[in-house]
Amino acid sequence: MVQATGGNLYTPALFHPSGNSAYYSLSLLGKGVQQYPLPAQWGSLWHTVAAPRGDIYDILGIAPNGALTSAFVQVSETGKITFLHQFSAADGFPTGNNMVYALDGNFYGIGTQQQNGVSPGFIFRFTPSGTYSQILTFPEFPGHSAFPLMAASDGNLYGTFTAGGANNTGEIYQVTLAGQFQTVASFPAKGMTDPWTLMQAADGNIYGTTNYNQIFRYDLTTHQLTMVYQLDPGGSLGKCACILIEGMDGKLYGVAPYGGSYPGYGTVFTLNIGLPKPKPAVTGLYPPSGPVGQQVILWGNYLLGATSVSFNGTPAITFSATTVQSVSATVPAGATSGPVTVTTANGSFTTTTSFTVQ
Questions:
Q1: CA dist., res. 266 & res. 264, Å (int)
Q2: What is the CB neighbour count within 10 angstroms for residue 187?
Q3: Alpha-helix residue ranges (DSSP H) falling in the chain
Q4: For the chain, domain boundaries
Q5: Which of 61, 153, 63 is closest to 100 using CA atoms?
Q6: Under CATH, domain 139-278 is a member of which superfamily?
Q7: Is 128 helix (H, G, I), strand (E, B) or coil?
Q8: How many other CB atoms are there within 10 angstroms of residue 232's CB atom?
Q9: Model pLDDT for residues 73-102, shown as the tens digit of each residue
Q10: What is the pTM for the complete model shown?
Q11: Tens digits of per-residue pLDDT, 198-231?
């Protein structure tokens, strides 16, 4: 599921009896379920990602006569689907890994030139209007990448190969938005191998999991790779590779697909490694200008529980933290052009760019 700026959750799914796909939306309380059918025979390839202007974006697929055809689409919060780009044979084939929304306002994902998902692999880019390009072809494609791309605060993309690197036990790679590739960390020959998912915590470091129950840290400053926790071999806490997030309390939370009290069914776990409670961060204002009364989306991270928003020092009377990534605020009377400040229980953040009051 992804959460749009309006606050509702959205997920693609199959529905009975036709077998056609649809999007479902529902509130965080599980109420108000809505169904938005997709065009006949089209189905989501599970690339769904939220964007700051309220829409979600996805890649759909259809297999007429066994030949896969894919399309990049925009989905409004009311379920309206707009086809923005249909892949041609020259465009290659998107893999089953999620797209990410990067700091430049574009979407990035992994593709392969062959339909079977083998080499050569590449990274593609979509603009919000649907302009498609490939920014690089991987110099290697040694192993499966679980969720290979993560958009970091330094403006670069990061991902993993479960093989490759100096010891052929896995690697972390960095890709600039200009398409420059480099391996930044190789996993050791023994003890911590086969990396999968990545995420960035509020301390600026990248954390991830391996297929052998380890949680690791990659320091963006020192480039050091270290293990921070080993899940028990018996799997009572779950067996990774796992998807991690950081909560507003600073703890890491994970979903392990295997292990637990009922082996094979998985667990949800929390891990406290001493990270501080994350302070809010804002990476963009949408729109960047407008009159008094304009609704503005503050887009960033760790924005849940916002207690105040001000425009160049003038408090916004109306605001709401709709998601962990977004706060909606109305430009108040008396506001002047300048930076915007948002405050949560964990601290405050002031933008380096200004909102222009028209």
A1: 6
A2: 27
A3: none
A4: 1-100+107-113, 139-278, 281-357
A5: 153
A6: TolB, C-terminal domain (2.120.10.30)
A7: coil
A8: 11
A9: 999 999 899 999 999 989 988 886 789 999
A10: 0.91
A11: 999 999 999 999 988 899 999 999 999 999 999 8
